[in-house]
Here is the input.
Amino acid sequence: MDAVAQSLLAAQNKAEALFADVVAGGLIQPGKLESELTADIHALAKERFGVRRHWHKRIARAGPNTLLTYYDEPSDRRIAEDDIVYLDFGPVFEAWEADFGRTYALGDDPAKHRLIADLADAFEAGAGSIRAPRR
Here is the structure.
């Protein structure tokens, strides 16, 4: 693997670790504003990985705000006990961008948890249909 590929993989691994730390640290909580969650994650990324900038705006959306597009600017919403929460961040690790999104289900609704569990498979199926074959 060449140096560029290694650097990109390292950035991806750090982004995955950041999202794992978000969950392990209990940052996604009912009662917190979306903007507060965004600020908490930004502080964690800076403290844990030295992230000083993101290559696109940071997004934390909950409940009905998760249905909006990247370009929408919804009002700041307080996370509810049974919400779905979507996070989209583009932290820059050294010179390398890592664009990651993750979705979480709060509460006990089995349909929401099943939906979240199925997202990775749906993403891979969609991505597989547009990827160029490997040589």
